[in-house]
Design goal:
Blueprint: H1 2-27, H2 32-44, H3 51-57, H4 60-90, H5 94-111, H6 114-127, H7 135-138, E1 145-151, H8 163-166, E2 174-179, E3 185-187, E4 200-206, H9 207-215, H10 220-248
Antiparallel strand pairs: 1-4, 2-3, 2-4
């Protein structure tokens, strides 16, 4: 009977480890279904070759989590095999089989418990520093979008204008923050924030638009470029709206 209890304990610990691994990966920015698949794949050593695995391997925190899951998974499998061998030596009596089946059902119900999931998430938030987000993945930077730093120069179209006057959002560009020349940081600046030479902007938008904005000079040419950028953004938004309408119908 002791060997059967060892099996149940091993499975329980395995479920707990994969749940903790799943929650840890979620805290780095993965969706829970993806995190669950990656955690189970690593723990049970089945391997995976999806594009999602690249997002894990290329992220230092996720890579460390997966490494621990692989190591703990190998140790767990060895323990289960040893327990099965020991159980087989004593024979599979009806009582032992019923005990094992009942234990497995209880563990299956525990594995689906949202309360356990919330408890693990709360523990990770309190005792770890895992919320290290992969912003490249969250902001979909693998496509046409980019986050970049733009340094404002005296001759730039941006210089000595407020964000409200520049209407950068009409071009599809969002200013996430500004580092002033003296080193002060302004997060999520509003429309009243005036840009000065020496400021470094952290912006998010289409890569080609960000590059053009970085090279845009002041004067009439800058205003013409801004108008063209706004028209281009409106065209892109109209195309996206048309695709959404087709998808809905």
């Amino acid at each position: 009977m002791g060997a059967f209890i060892a099996i149940l304990l091993t499975i329980a610990v395995s479920l707990l480890i994969t749940r903790v691994g799943t929650s840890a990966l979620v805290h780095t920015g993965l969706s829970r279904p993806v995190a669950r698949f990656q955690a189970r794949s690593a723990f049970f050593g089945v391997g995976f070759t999806t594009s999602e695995s690249e997002a894990v391997v290329n992220h230092p925190v996720r890579r460390r989590i997966i490494l621990w899951l692989v190591l703990l998974g190998n140790a767990g499998i060895v323990t289960v095999l040893a327990s099965v061998v020991l159980s087989a030596r004593g024979g599979f009596t009806p009582v032992r089989v019923a005990t094992l089946a009942g234990g497995l059902v209880a563990l299956a119900l525990l594995a689906r418990s949202r309360m356990l999931e919330r408890a693990i998430d709360a523990a990770l938030r309190r005792w770890s520093d895992l919320p290290v987000r992969d912003y490249a993945d969250l902001l979909h930077l693998s496509g046409d979008f980019a986050v970049a730093e733009l340094e404002v120069e005296t001759s730039d179209w941006l210089a000595e204008n407020s964000l409200g006057e520049l209407h950068l959002r009409d071009e599809g560009v969002v200013v996430l923050g500004i580092t002033r020349l003296g080193g002060d940081w302004i997060g999520a600046p509003d429309g009243d924030t005036v840009l000065h030479a020496g400021d470094v902007l952290v912006v998010y938008g289409r890569e080609d638009r960000v590059c053009e904005l970085d090279n845009r000079r002041g004067g009439a040419a800058g205003e013409t470029a801004h108008a063209a950028a706004v028209a281009e953004q409106q065209r892109l938004e109209a195309e996206e709206d048309a695709r959404d309408a087709v998808a809905v119908t």
